[in-house]
Amino acid sequence: MKIKVGILGATGNVGQRFIQMLENHPIFELEALGASERSLGKTYKEACYWYQTEPIPEDVSKAVVVSTNPDDKAYEDVDIVFSALPSDLAKKLEPAFAKAGKYVFSNASAMRMEKDVPLIVPEVNYEHFGMIEVQKSNNNTDGAVITNPNCSTIAAVLSLKPIMDKFGIDLVNITTMQAVSGAGYDGVPSMAILDNLVPHIGGEEEKMQTESLKILGNFEENGFKNANFKMGVSCNRVPVIDGHTESIFVKTTEETTPEEIINAMNDFDPLKRFNLPSYAKPIVIRSEIDRPQPRLDRNTGNGMSIVVGRVRKDPIFTVKYTALEHNTIRGAAGASVLNAELFVQKYL
Amino acid sequence: MKIKVGILGATGNVGQRFIQMLENHPIFELEALGASERSLGKTYKEACYWYQTEPIPEDVSKAVVVSTNPDDKAYEDVDIVFSALPSDLAKKLEPAFAKAGKYVFSNASAMRMEKDVPLIVPEVNYEHFGMIEVQKSNNNTDGAVITNPNCSTIAAVLSLKPIMDKFGIDLVNITTMQAVSGAGYDGVPSMAILDNLVPHIGGEEEKMQTESLKILGNFEENGFKNANFKMGVSCNRVPVIDGHTESIFVKTTEETTPEEIINAMNDFDPLKRFNLPSYAKPIVIRSEIDRPQPRLDRNTGNGMSIVVGRVRKDPIFTVKYTALEHNTIRGAAGASVLNAELFVQKYL
Amino acid sequence: MKIKVGILGATGNVGQRFIQMLENHPIFELEALGASERSLGKTYKEACYWYQTEPIPEDVSKAVVVSTNPDDKAYEDVDIVFSALPSDLAKKLEPAFAKAGKYVFSNASAMRMEKDVPLIVPEVNYEHFGMIEVQKSNNNTDGAVITNPNCSTIAAVLSLKPIMDKFGIDLVNITTMQAVSGAGYDGVPSMAILDNLVPHIGGEEEKMQTESLKILGNFEENGFKNANFKMGVSCNRVPVIDGHTESIFVKTTEETTPEEIINAMNDFDPLKRFNLPSYAKPIVIRSEIDRPQPRLDRNTGNGMSIVVGRVRKDPIFTVKYTALEHNTIRGAAGASVLNAELFVQKYL
Amino acid sequence: MKIKVGILGATGNVGQRFIQMLENHPIFELEALGASERSLGKTYKEACYWYQTEPIPEDVSKAVVVSTNPDDKAYEDVDIVFSALPSDLAKKLEPAFAKAGKYVFSNASAMRMEKDVPLIVPEVNYEHFGMIEVQKSNNNTDGAVITNPNCSTIAAVLSLKPIMDKFGIDLVNITTMQAVSGAGYDGVPSMAILDNLVPHIGGEEEKMQTESLKILGNFEENGFKNANFKMGVSCNRVPVIDGHTESIFVKTTEETTPEEIINAMNDFDPLKRFNLPSYAKPIVIRSEIDRPQPRLDRNTGNGMSIVVGRVRKDPIFTVKYTALEHNTIRGAAGASVLNAELFVQKYL
């Protein structure tokens, strides 16, 4: 018997990626496609402009879009909802679904920094799932909200985790080059980005800096405790469809070498033993001098692996490297689904 | 009476920019268009695929291309040659032109790090022109080779100079996002860069790190003395035609604020009093949250100003900011021409 | 004494181009910047996101945006308004301005096909200005609405006119490759067009087919009479910022050759004698095998010339050629301004 | 027992696509990777810059590259070679391989228009395979050269064939918008195509015009007889990685409607009964107003289907439509492989 799931915000770019991740899923069965009033009662095909390169799954295409109201009877048998809601709606609706007894795995930013909401990259900090019981108790609910971080945060924390574990981290400096899909389908006008780049993404630098410290920090009795290093970020938008690329500089606590860092990343594989359906090796190392590249490498591990290359010494930091992540798979829908898969297997 | 000048490597991308910079120039008169054997004896129009958005100047179009041999009589009356030669040819030919009594203003990398060759960004270190006499004496020549740095170095040192002068610099970290024109017309295949970026540019990081310290260092009796700070760089190629963008992080020696840094950059204008033909205010500050952008801002000051924006605090460094430079004007042909203009006015 | 003019829809992409065309204009003085309620009372700089590569003219930057109500006293001394309004607003407001005694030179599509509204490309059919008196009389107004065609129509009719005059035209077939700026700043999301093209532009094919026949037709006592040839069009959007490119096939009534067509186009210059401020040679012929190209050639004649190349024989049609037009200058703002300049000189 | 095959020109863009098509192929086994002297003796991984988005098949990666000499013992057991050679080499080497008893399925243009060389799109004219016996007899060889057309020709003839069969064709007019991969990895510099298009592809218009008439013509006792309609073409290069898009206009002999044309295309499926490994429905019709689009639709049928949309009336021609083809799969490597699969099944 599969677990029945719903999607909130099913017609947008991340919603479409959720649908792709859940197609023929071995443990989840897609039951409810929630979207805004405009789409209500239409078939999914009518309601959405599908802009993925694979066709809409046949059954989804014909399914009728429902509301995002937790009382909608479409959610009656649903245990888990995946949220791709805009932030303002997420703030209202996600707690409402938790109150209605659902586990909400959310890609929205609204609840990420709440004190009793876990912010999880499962390879990095699945022990933070422990906060779910606190959250339920605080709010007197049967369900809970579990979030995954901002797309650009994931490549950072995934690649930093094995370094932190082995050598400790004092300082992290990151400059991102982020794909246009991160802003949603209508987010970046072509006139803004053809033959151009934009050296600013609203709120992104702050999100990366605060989220990373929460995720790489500890879950303790009385709350989350931030990781104890400094991190500075500069974010840029570039004319790439999918795939965030990051130039990352790290100063470790203990001395180390690029070779040892590469080995630590290669060995890093804490979820392997769970055999999760959406699992892929979290970090794939490329040895070519000019990789990773977003167009060529973003689909590594079906878009669930980050790809790291050019690990080398730096005059100021201990090492620098380039990390790449498929921002709408590993950095969004895939992140929520992997969280849910691990949660189901380990905690339900 | 104008000074007669030649161009070595006149048909390539930087050569074309030299031609544009020298059109109707008030003190230089273009006399010799030197190129490889393939082009010899053809009119410039026949010899070159002109890919600038302004037409070829009429007289240049009809001029006959000559050799790059300093004995060619086309160079007889020429006092200055501008070099856009590839590095291997530059290594041989630039000293030969100096021996033939010419001042060679070179955009090539071959001679930049030689002990007696000045590497000049005129707003930053024109006192390094003093090395010319040493070079002449060392080589027993009447001419000399004067270089300008790699394109991506110029935005860095121009924006760092006012900071260094006022507050001192301890650490500099830069991630670049560089335009395809920096690799020459054929340098970056479209299949390599459409919907993509490449996190590597051969030799670029090393050049930026070594050249910047030489330029920001001192000219002393017995040689150049490097600036005394550490600098780490990560270079990327992005799908932009013209305009290198750099995310720059600086730790100053003395405490300071973004506002003070902005003021220092705004006040920085050491060449203004010379009224040089190609002069533009070296640093233009943009206050919008999402500027500078290469497509919109690269032509600021006819491509001779760098544009700085987003000066702000950083958790690790004192400040971070974004700098933009037109890489084939300010970063290449314009750099050589401005060097020559100042040299002529101040030293000839 | 200059003629005072206003712009309706001053903050959008075409509005910005109007501002650039009218900067330092010898006969027009920009007096009123009309925009929607959202912008009212703000300075132009505050009200608009300026995305041109040249800075906002200083005086415009500080000017206060006014309403688009003809009763607004900002329009009191204005004789001419240029309209870059969206179609639905144009339909209401342009006749209202005409009623208020203004000449409205409109780039909007709303009124183009009205029976008493002239649709003018001045090199092609300025005798259609004759309809202005009919329109005034029909509506009992002192002002009138004068339109210019859809951007992609202009390259077509300008290049067809000299062919029609000399050899007659039986059939015209066009496939367009149109720049994203034609859809307005937000019109084409980057996700829709990076590494892609879109083989459809709403209403464009119909507009080109109907407008071309009106423009190339005759103005007669009792109305316009369409040109007497057939025209079929297929429109595509491509990832180009500015510059519509068109593959055009023409079957002429009389036999002719590519050389004769080239000569006819080269000789075509009916406005030269008027010395209009925005005038440029209407058709510039390029002889290179691979021109015109939008990035390299769109600014020919300050964006007011169309560029034609590859005029050659075709197995079905008499000739085929490629035509290029800067769609937001020659194809929009520049078209209205040139209409107004000729109207003022010849009819006022 | 699988048939052993080789690839000539294995390291280039089309060669890489051949490798992908032949991975885990049910009837072909890849035995010889032939390339130029530069690559000889290296492993394939060392010899080639692999720029596909899927990794190199493991066994190919380690295989050693061999010469393109038919006497090389690497070809001893090979029955079929696929050729992705440049035209000049193809002219020499393909007949040499035929003489050595191999069947050469070639994507090169060199031999396509030879009188006894079949030029085949298997859904359209597989009866032209009959010419193989004539060729063998003419040249006294055991092998033969079988070609597939130029990439842009295939979308044309595939979509025209069902129209011709049902309604007859009098006139065809095509304007292409072709992807950069069609020119090979280094073929189109990024500076040539970013924010641009190029209205010319050397030899392409002529190839489309001549090849289409040969393919759609008849194979008769004494030779091929061209199809009896006129066709005019205009070719353009656009900034798209993969996927040629074509605006096609057709005048049929008998009257018909867009609906009948759509039905004829939908019903067109002459290879279905053969169950060929690389087979996909040849024409997939999209009903959306703005499809096909290269980025979204090029992988339809694993890149082996062409996608047709916007079938509609035209004022001059009977219908016009947009056709899309994956130019390096269906238009190159896949075309040769499908030819070979049918040949093996039906004629060997």
Description:
The structure is a homotetramer of 348-residue chains. In chain A, helix 1 packs across helix 12 (329-347) and helix 7 (151-167) packs parallel to helix 9. In chain A, a hairpin with a 5-residue loop joins strand 12 and strand 13 (319-325). Chain A is built from twelve helices and 13 strands. Chain A has two domains: 3-150 and 332-347, NAD(P)-binding Rossmann-like Domain (Rossmann fold, 3-Layer(aba) Sandwich), CATH 3.40.50.720; 151-326, Dihydrodipicolinate Reductase, domain 2, CATH 3.30.360.10. Chain A has a six-stranded mixed beta sheet. In chain A, strands 2-1-3-4-5 form a five-stranded parallel beta sheet, sandwiched between helices. Chain A has a two-stranded antiparallel sheet with strand order 7-8. The first copy, chain A, is an alpha/beta fold and 348 residues long. The mean pLDDT of chain A is 97. Chain A has helices at 13-22, 44-47, 58-62, 87-99, 122-125, 131-139, 151-167, 190-193, 204-215, 258-267, 294-297, 329-347; strands at residues 3-8, 28-34, 80-83, 103-106, 144-147, 169-178, 218-220, 223-225, 230-237, 244-252, 283-286, 306-313, 319-325. Chain A is globular and about 60 Å long. Chains in contact: A-B, A-C, A-D, B-C, B-D, C-D. Chain B binds chain C through residues 51-54, 194-195, 241, 295-297, 299, and chain C through 51-54, 194-195, 241, 295-297, 299.
